[in-house]
Amino acid sequence: MDSNKKMGKFDIDIEIKDVLWEFARRWRLIVVLAALCGLVLTAYQYRLDMGKTDVVTVKKSQEELETSMGRQDLDEVTAAVALKRQMDEKSAYMEASVLMQMNPYEEHAVILQYYVNADNKETAADAADSYRAYINNYSFAQEISVKGKLELEPAYLAELVSITKDESNLYINAENTAESINLKVEGSEAERSFCVKIVGTTAEEANIISSEVKRVLEEYQNVVTTTIGIQQLKLMEESSNVIVDQSLAELQNRNATAIKTIGNNLDKMKNEMTSDQISLYVYRTTVPTEKSENSSAGSVTTQKGAQISFKHLFIGIIVGIILACGLIFVLYLFAPALRNSEEIKTLYGIKVIGLVHDNKFQKKKLFGFIDQFIEKLQNRRKKCLSYEQEIQIVCANILLDCKKNEIKEVFLTSSTSEDIPEEIRNAIAMKCEEKGIHITLGNAIHYDAEALEQLAQIGNVIFIEKKRSSLYDELYSEISLCKEHDIHVIGMIVL
């Protein structure tokens, strides 16, 4: 042994593979900590939400409040409720409308210029008017949405398609100045032509809607021919550009300003209301319009209750898993017990006589089948031996060493005798007796004087130790004691 071994110190190598298997073996600790952290974090968040719960109590029923107020007070409440609903509707529209969410300074537009060809100008002009009316009709947007299987609602789709007469408010974006839009049709020809403008948040979206517009207009030709006369709709020009839409920018600003103005007026009205007016306002804006059984008497309480957050539950589980893995790694890193059989040769310079699995002698654990699966997975590349075969191999190795060194009697001991199943020690002793080798079973020589005397008389020893149970320091002390007294160490059996 080197100087570190002589001082009872060891440099133990840590392999990532062994650490990962240690995580798998301690899966119960990971599950418990994950569940505990998940529940604790969820309960903590639930407690915070309970503290923030919005509770509004109306001391009088709606009928009582309305009866106690004069006509002017009721009108003020009604006006405030109307403003609140108007503001909510405009806010919902601004959030849902694709056009209102669009960047007016980078609007992707497709311009389709159509010309109606017919035998006489009157038929052509009437047909063009029919196309314009159809495009401006809600049914046109419905037709595009249904046939094109677009996800946009027809009401919001209709805002993206329009008839364009004057393009003076549209400017090509600086990045597209090389292109131009030529839409001017002068003289009498203007009556039989029209332009369709399709806009989208992206060029792809605008092109998809444009394709559906062309297809629906082409199908609508038959309707126009039946109602007005023979005519033909021709697509004269199609252009795609990124434009600056001043009218859209102004519209968005007007809507935003209107919402802000309504909100300011509503706040001003509420500040001038009495407590009963505020209660009635809260009732009308927070309590459903359908009257419940308790709405005509007693108080009305509206509450936004706290809810269990699955997001915090998931975060807590992840935190628990991380903490468990960190704890397992620290325990593994500073573990004072034998980790694997390979350390026997490296640390103590003695050979491993054999490996014996003691699973059949251990107490059954909850979900023990998972432990068995993990063990089989870890040993998947090794040949699976039965318990009897493992005992036979151990005894065969003992017999070979005894014949080589002409040994007839061996002392079998362990630093942790209480952790070694008696059945395994007896099985090894009986099997060796059959081969003519006498095995004397004894306790730990470091703590039992009688065992130490037996060892001195026999002069040959085999250690039987258990992984994750036998301590490095005790093993070192017993092996050193044997070498100091010239006791022949045959090897070690590892459980």
Write up this protein:
By secondary structure, the chain is α/β, with parallel strands linked by helices. It folds into four domains: 12-53 and 305-335, no CATH class; 55-96 and 274-303, no CATH class; 98-252, Alpha-Beta Plaits, CATH 3.30.70; 339-494, Rossmann fold (3-Layer(aba) Sandwich). Helix content is 54%, strand content 15%. The protein is built from 19 helices and twelve strands. It has a five-stranded antiparallel sheet with strand order 3-5-2-6-4. Helix 17 (422-434) links the parallel strand 9 (409-413) and strand 10. Helix 5 packs antiparallel against helix 11. The longest helix is centred in the N-terminal third of the chain and has 26 residues, at 71-96. It is elongated. The two termini are 25 Å apart. Residues 1-10, 166-187 and 289-303 have low confidence and may be disordered.
Q: Nearest-angstrom radius of gyration?
A: 44 Å
Give the total of domains: 4
Structural class: alpha/beta
- With strands numbered from the N-terminus, the spatial order across the biggest sheet is 3-5-2-6-4
Mind telling me the CATH class of the largest domain?
Answer: Alpha Beta
Number of helices: 19
Q: What is the CATH architecture term of the largest domain?
A: 3-Layer(aba) Sandwich
How large is the share of residues in beta strands? 15-25%
What is the molecular shape? elongated
- Describe the main β-sheet briefly: 5 strands, antiparallel
- Mean pLDDT level: 79
- Low-pLDDT segments, ≥5 res: 1-10, 166-187, 289-303
Report the CATH topology name of the largest domain: Rossmann fold
Query: Could you tell me how far the N terminus lies from the C terminus, measured between alpha carbons in angstroms?
Result: 25 Å
Count of distinct strands: 12
The level of helicity is 40-55%
